[in-house]
Amino acid sequence: MKLADTHCHIDSDRYDEDRENILKEIEGNLEFAVNIGYDLDSSKRSIELADRHDFMYAVVGVHPTDIKGYNDELEDQLEELAGHPKVVAIGEIGLDYHWMKDEKEEQKTVFRRQLELAKRVNKPVVIHTRDATHDTLEILKEYPEIKGIVHCYPGSYESAVEIMDNYYFGVGGVITFKNARKLVEAVSKIPLDRLVIETDSPYLTPTPFRGKRNHPIYVEHIARKIAEIKEISYEEVVRVTTENAKKIYGI
């Protein structure tokens, strides 16, 4: 079994010059990768990638910093896209109080609307939360029937426990940064069977490539860091986190 990248953005224009090479490397090195939408256009591009490549899957949704203009018509289009057989979740959705473009209440309203959408189409969700952990968790608790992944998990172990029955926690390149003490502590305590690995490519590149464009095959560096933190074998991290990814995404 190989690693999976549960969260990447290969449709980004930062891959325009060598996207096909990147995709070949994903095919050769990973079990699969999941391309994540952040608005309607990127959701459509994610599906196009998944349509063309067996090893790619898609997630469709509107990111909290892209919700301006979110309305019934847009939501109907998302719901239609969600019916595609390679769409495995609704996302990335959530709250972002760091790059806040819309008021908190507006973000919460659209977040709840997309959670309702996930409920209607019976899909898990991929959650984005930045500087908004408390509010994000409180809203997720309103929907006990929904499961998903908290992308680039920013919180503590204690916060994770509050939603651990329904959610997996995405670990990316940040775990390799020197200032990631809080995340290292959380990952040391969160059970391996609740972790998934992601790159968020082209962003959040792990050490030793920090400062350069990220690549889905860099999941290896994240997995090796998790193995070091948990004092277990790299092979066990590969096996368990890939099984977790398959389970939550229904792959």
UniProtKB/TrEMBL annotation:
Q: Which domain of life is it from?
A: Bacteria
Q: Which InterPro entries match?
A: DNase_TatD-rel_CS, Metal_Hydrolase, TatD-like, TatD/YcfH-like
Signal peptide positions on this chain = none
Pfam families reported for this sequence: TatD_DNase
The UniProt GO MF terms for this protein read: exonuclease activity
Sorted keywords for this record are: Exonuclease, Hydrolase, Metal-binding, Nuclease
What is the protein name stated in its UniProt record? YchF/TatD family DNA exonuclease
Please give the organism: Psychrilyobacter piezotolerans
